[in-house]
Amino acid sequence: MTQPGKVIAHRGPGRRPKHRQTEGDTRAAILSAARRMFALRGLEGTSIRDVAEAAKVNTAMLYYYFKDKGDLYRAVLADSFSAVAAIWNDEIFKSLSSARDRIKRFVEGYIGFHRSNDDLRRIMAMEFAKSGGNMTWICEMYFADNFGRIVQILKDGMRKGELKKADPFRAAASLIGIIVHNFIMQPVVEHVRGRRSDMSPKKLGEFVTSLFFDGLAAGGRS
């Protein structure tokens, strides 16, 4: 039985690579090229030929791995979002650490993910604008699990008295929004500020975690 979210490479009419290493490299090159093209032109504006040319392979080779453009597009998303799923492998999420410490670890991992995925952020911006079938698929396959894990951490913290009672779903959305919009607004902030911003997981992670849990009120006032 296929695991949810796992993409199985399509074996079409293209010529089979000579050995396993070449096969893996070729598929990775196609995914990388497709991610760049989808980020630049969107799904509708990108053709199979565009991706093949960018990946420096013929279209038959591309069809060897993916049955059509839609299959390729979802494979790009699955490949990209696998890095988010990996965040939850950290031992802290299996421990009795505080909600704040677990959220801080997620925040650092998610910031690291965004630093390495400018193209995916552009793709997702287009998907959010359309709110079509692919957005529903993305929510079901990737967002729901990650969002649910954050909500559960917040609920645990509220139950134990670490956090005040609040809507955990809105809180989780706000946390993710702080991170995402920091990256979206980065060019504006750097232009107004006149220097580059430190977007490292440690520096930005400390700011986001502190803002989320403590706010900006002086003296601990809410």
Protein model, in words:
The structure is a single chain. The chain is mainly alpha-helical and 222 residues long. Helices cover 68% and strands 0% of the residues. The protein contains 10 helices and no strands. Helix 1 packs across helix 2 (48-55). The longest helix has 27 residues, at 133-159. It is globular. It starts with 19 loop residues before the first helix and ends in an 8-residue tail after the last helix. 22% of the residues are buried. Residues 1-9 have low confidence and may be disordered.
Short summary:
With 222 residues, the protein is an all-alpha fold.
Structural class: mainly alpha
Total number of helices: 10
Segments where pLDDT lies below 50 for 5+ residues? Answer: 1-9
Main beta sheet: none
User: How many strand elements?
Assistant: 0
Could you list some keywords that capture this structure?
disordered N terminus, mainly alpha, single chain, globular, 222 residues, 10 helices
Could you give the topology of this structure?
Layout lengths: L19 H22 L6 H8 L3 H7 L3 H19 L11 H17 L2 H13 L2 H27 L8 H17 L1 H8 L7 H14 L8
